[in-house]
Amino acid sequence: MDDYVTTFIGPLLGPMETATGRPDDVQVFFGKLAARFRDDPAAARKGCLWVNSLAEFAGRGNVLEVGANAYHKRLYDAFDNALSGGGRTAAESARTLARRRSRMLAATTFGLWLAARTEAAEAVKLAEAVRAEVRSW
């Protein structure tokens, strides 16, 4: 799991987690998911190791559940950071909106990975739709 986080999750989330994170990084994230689903449908059908683990082990109180929950929090925090301009958003109403959108995007990301397991082409369309929606923010 640590290797997966280092080699796959880290590069996807890294730009959104920096002090210079910005909403454009969220668009890039969903663009990368769309490209992954489009370019390698067989790999997309395997899903995300963390999402799969969370779905499988949730509620069992084991070490994998703890790690998968940490991934969910990291995903949410990355979106929140990027949508808040690296934490630079001053207005509380903007912070509240960024947090609400971050929760939605974290849940959406989990759904995209599950969709990719059954129909990679549909997951591409969904990821591109999310990317376009973020662009409109």
Q: Give the biggest sheet.
A: none
Spell out the helices and strands N to C. HHHHHHH
Structural class, by secondary structure, is mainly alpha
Strand content: under 5%
Number of strands: 0
User: Which value, in Å, is the CA radius of gyration?
Assistant: 15 Å
Q: Layout of helices and strands, plus pairs?
A:
Elements: H1 2-17, H2 23-39, H3 41-44, H4 49-57, H5 63-83, H6 92-118, H7 120-135
Features:
137 residues, single chain, mainly alpha, globular
Question: How would you explain this protein's 3D organization?
Answer:
The chain is mostly helical and 137 residues long. Helices cover 80% and strands 0% of the residues. Helix 1 crosses helix 2. The longest helix is centred in the last third of the chain and has 27 residues, at 92-118. 31% of the residues are buried. The model has no long low-confidence stretch (mean pLDDT 89).
Quick structural gist:
With 137 residues, this protein is an all-alpha fold. It is 80% helix and 0% strand.
